Known about the structure:
4 copies of one chain form a homotetramer. By secondary structure, chain A is an all-alpha fold.
Amino acid sequence: MSVDGMRTFGELQERLQHFVDEREWSRFHSPKNLTMALTGEVGELVEHFQWLDGKASEALEPETREAVRRELADVQIYLMLLAGRLDMDLLEAVDDKIDENEGKYPADKARGRSDKYTNL
Amino acid sequence: MSVDGMRTFGELQERLQHFVDEREWSRFHSPKNLTMALTGEVGELVEHFQWLDGKASEALEPETREAVRRELADVQIYLMLLAGRLDMDLLEAVDDKIDENEGKYPADKARGRSDKYTNL
Amino acid sequence: MSVDGMRTFGELQERLQHFVDEREWSRFHSPKNLTMALTGEVGELVEHFQWLDGKASEALEPETREAVRRELADVQIYLMLLAGRLDMDLLEAVDDKIDENEGKYPADKARGRSDKYTNL
Amino acid sequence: MSVDGMRTFGELQERLQHFVDEREWSRFHSPKNLTMALTGEVGELVEHFQWLDGKASEALEPETREAVRRELADVQIYLMLLAGRLDMDLLEAVDDKIDENEGKYPADKARGRSDKYTNL
């Protein structure tokens, strides 16, 4: 654990792996299946936002907020399991992707625009 | 940075926030919009797996593997941005969700079964 | 064909089936895989709307509009193929679902509200 | 209605529009929001297939089969509403897309292959 008692990303991945192993669920966890499970959780997350406008989505009711927090956790969990199953380092992949995006979206060209880099 | 030179989860979230701020993209990043962006990235991830069977999804071609790694990063990035925008601690949410799942899926009842907890 | 020369829903399903058979693609088209393909197409559709607000999504640029139209077609195509593979009549399923929704969402209670029927 | 008493695609779209109008729901139905609702329904559909292998997905348990049929209807309903809101003819779009795919995937080159047309 880190100094403040919170688990790190790596510790959570280990905790998850232990949880899955204890239940012998790895037989269900092909990357294909985990990708589908990830999709399902994202679908549940989206349902909380579909009828809200952008502004309302910033200020969720407490009950919705708690439900959203639990859906975010589910999405993160399947993402960790998927990366683990594929033996990929998620944080390293993110770091590399930000490097790449810094090249594709130079700050001075991309400022205030939502265009794809191919249109900058 | 951690001892081995890799960025931690929190450091990556800060790096992302800096990246977004520099480009003045936060105006586009309502939770609603970020949820949609997350969905789009998951859709791109799924496309790599849709015609593979479970076994083939374990042993990706190098080119597909690299593409999948980059999609995983994109999903993780939008998830971090969404949690950040909602001012939620993703890792804490995951930790809490595993606690909850330990209660819902006791190892001795859930072993080797993919049923929902309501059917255990 | 119908009187005005347009193909009916059933004729399009037949046309699609013929297209698939000619290419011997049915081996890839398990319901599981078709569901994933459907997800992927929905993800592509979502990407066109993610940074627009509700109002802008009503008045798409001509180029976006054409792209959206083609994504809608892809979603419809996989939905038809999936229903066909499962030997289900999509139109009948829709008709039944509207019947059901009329019971769950009485017009006088549901008017102007986006709540789930369980909250009406 | 058609000869056999079943509603046609166009009649179902009209029935749906009437259902929505009676409840004054069109205020929620921007294309952006309908796209999200579509995503949510696809997520629910996917959940029925995520732990099944391809073969099992062909032979659903009766209860799952009925649930899947209702999810297919929900996906079709939001797709119809979205096309209606955008004033697009879904069936015509499908017909045009099949024309296009016939060009991109010549039967003799695409036979038995799941590759994207750019790789044929």
